[in-house]
């Protein structure tokens, strides 16, 4: 399967105010999806730097339908929270990478099981931005 043919299991929630707690988002996702975070059906990762959160579903769910339902839900609208599916990708951007970091170190870091354990096929360093673009063999490497 190519990444384009696989449905996304990740939904980005945008416009999440700093006063919104993760437990409120979890309950909102549970209400809309009928799933349970306690049962491991999904997880929520807050990203306060960009006023967002990512909902990752572990099972078979139509993430697009969930995003549509959330966008129409009165509580989400009241909070001005919007949802959209995240596209599957085989690359991630790592930030705060010192410019003198060897690309072999970055490769081994991401291939280590503690850090994902995915096969890295390319590392493009961006020393002027203290960043690197890491490309994995498949989309599961960047989850």
What does this structure look like?
It is a single chain. Helices cover 26% and strands 27% of the residues. The chain is α+β, with helices and mostly antiparallel strands and 143 residues long. It folds into two domains: 10-85, Alpha-Beta Plaits (2-Layer Sandwich); 91-136. The protein is elongated, with a radius of gyration of 17 Å. Residues 1-5 have low confidence and may be disordered. It holds the Pfam family RRM_PARP14_3. Residues 8-86 form the PARP14 second RRM domain.
Give helix % range.
25-40%
**CATH topological fold name of the largest domain:** Alpha-Beta Plaits
Query: How many domains in all?
Result: 2
- Name the helix and strand elements from N-terminus to C-terminus, one letter apiece: EHEEHHEEHEE
Low-confidence stretches: 1-5
Radius of gyration: 17 Å
By secondary-structure content and strand pairing, the structural class works out as alpha+beta
Indicate the proportion of strand residues.
Answer: 25-35%
User: Treating each run of at least 4 consecutive H or I residues as one helix, how many helices?
Assistant: 4
Describe the global form: elongated
How many DSSP-defined strands?
Answer: 7
What is the second-level CATH architecture of the largest domain? Answer: 2-Layer Sandwich
Strand numbers in spatial order across the main sheet = 2-3-1-4
The level 1 CATH classification of the largest domain is: Alpha Beta
Q: Tell me about the biggest sheet? A: 4 strands, antiparallel
Query: What is the rounded distance between the termini?
Result: 17 Å
Average pLDDT works out at: 88
């Amino acid at each position: 399967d190519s990444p384009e043919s696989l449905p996304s299991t990740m939904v980005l929630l945008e416009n999440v105010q700093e006063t919104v707690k993760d437990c409120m988002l979890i309950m909102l996702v549970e209400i809309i999806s009928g799933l349970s975070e306690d049962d491991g059906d999904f997880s929520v990762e807050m990203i306060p730097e960009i006023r967002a959160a990512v909902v990752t579903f572990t099972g078979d769910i139509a993430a697009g339908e969930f995003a549509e339902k959330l966008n129409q839900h009165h509580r989400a609208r009241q909070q001005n929270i919007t949802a959209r599916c995240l596209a599957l990708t085989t690359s991630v951007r790592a930030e705060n990478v010192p410019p003198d970091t060897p690309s072999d170190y970055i490769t081994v870091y991401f291939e280590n099981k503690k850090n994902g354990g995915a096969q890295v096929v390319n590392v493009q360093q961006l020393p002027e931005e203290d960043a690197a673009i890491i490309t994995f063999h498949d989309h599961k490497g960047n989850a």
